[in-house]
Amino acid sequence: MAVRPVDALIARIRATADPKRAEGSLWFFKTAPGQYGHGDQFLGLTVPQMREIARDGDALTLRDLAKLLDSPWHEERLIALLSLVRRHEKRAEERDAIYELYLSKTDRINNWDLVDASAPQIVGPHATRATLTKLARSQSLWERRIAIIATQYLIRRNEFAETLRIARILLHDEHDLIHKAVGWMLREVGKRDQEVEETFLREHAHTMPRTMLRYAIERFPEELRKSYLAARSLATGRTALPPPRARRAAVPPRTTRRR
């Protein structure tokens, strides 16, 4: 009797497992009681190994990949997501179904690496304003992260409005992983148009979480970074920032938009 492709893929994953590496993953992905990854289980595969195995996912059905997403093993869920990203890119006729499957399984996309490896490619091209808003206002940490990370798809197309809108919704989120995600996406906006990012920061830098701000200004010149951090520390709003002309002097001149 022929072995089903999904069973062959699972067997390959299990054969590649490394228990010692798995122990390190338990710490890295914060799986202790009370931490965001509590209860997750690991087999101990590397990311290159998982990307290679995900190529075999091309032979699986969407039902197979949905089953793999239900796995208790972190690496099997990531391989399922990497396979879905590949299919979404290659098979236009399946894109809507992949998007719907993804949204139906957000409870299984439950760590930052799972979100970051898939949300821009699968959610980004499809999500409406209403869907992103619903995700951003969710009680689920991972749905909130999906909302902001998905907008990276738009950032790469020099469309920044949705990123800034979702960032405002998440501006006072309590979780560190959302602070980092929002700051990262703001930094990505700034890499393409620094003035757009700074317009947002002049309004919000003095109240946003410090981690969010530090991620957002990571690529700025030192003096400019200090001015934003000072504005937040003093909690005096935009008046704590240097005037635009003086602030511009701290930024290296450029003739083309940063990418």
Can you walk through the features of this model?
By secondary structure, the chain is mainly α. It has 17 helices and no strands. It is globular, with a radius of gyration of 21 Å. The C terminus is likely disordered.
Architecture blueprint of SSEs:
Elements: H1 5-15, H2 19-28, H3 47-54, H4 62-69, H5 74-90, H6 95-104, H7 112-116, H8 119-122, H9 129-136, H10 141-150, H11 152-155, H12 161-169, H13 176-192, H14 194-204, H15 210-216, H16 222-234, H17 244-249
Helix pairs in contact: 3-5, 4-5, 9-10, 10-13, 13-14, 13-15
- Name the structural class: mainly alpha
Strand count, sense and barrel status of the largest sheet are:
none
The chain-level mean pLDDT equals 91
Radius of gyration: 21 Å
Strand content: under 5%
Order of helices and strands: HHHHHHHHHHHHHHHHH
Flag low-confidence runs. 236-240, 242-259
Shape: globular
Helix fraction by DSSP (H/I, runs of at least 4): 55-70%
- What is the terminal-to-terminal distance? 54 Å
Number of strands: 0
Number of helices: 17
